Amino acid sequence: MSDVSPESNQDSKTDTTASGPSISDRAGDFMSQANEMLGKVDWSQMGKYGKAAGIIAVVIIAQIVIKVIVDTVNFFPILPGLLELLGIIVVGQWSWQNLTTSEKRSAVLEKVQNLRKEYID
Known about the structure:
This protein has three domains: 6-39, no CATH class; 45-75; 77-121. The protein contains five helices and no strands. It has helices at 6-19, 23-39, 46-75, 79-98, 102-119. The N and C termini lie far apart (83 Å).
């Protein structure tokens, strides 16, 4: 099979690991490189990125929570139909209160245009 005895094979393995850098040395090198790269970052711009990342995280979490709630509501057979009926009633009531006369319709249109100017323009 092989001319090398198992004892000499073990010695060669210990020699290669002893000559290479240890894990703590590698970790120290990595940390020093990471600190050096982080020192070059312009931290004054990180507020924008932090806000964007926070908004994205909140949206993702909100979508997960909404999906769980909707799945729970859909689990009960009669509840989705009742909620749909409630939505129709609320929209009908709001429409009756706010859209029956031309003055009310123009007031709603004015509110929508003011909100559009405030948030979009």
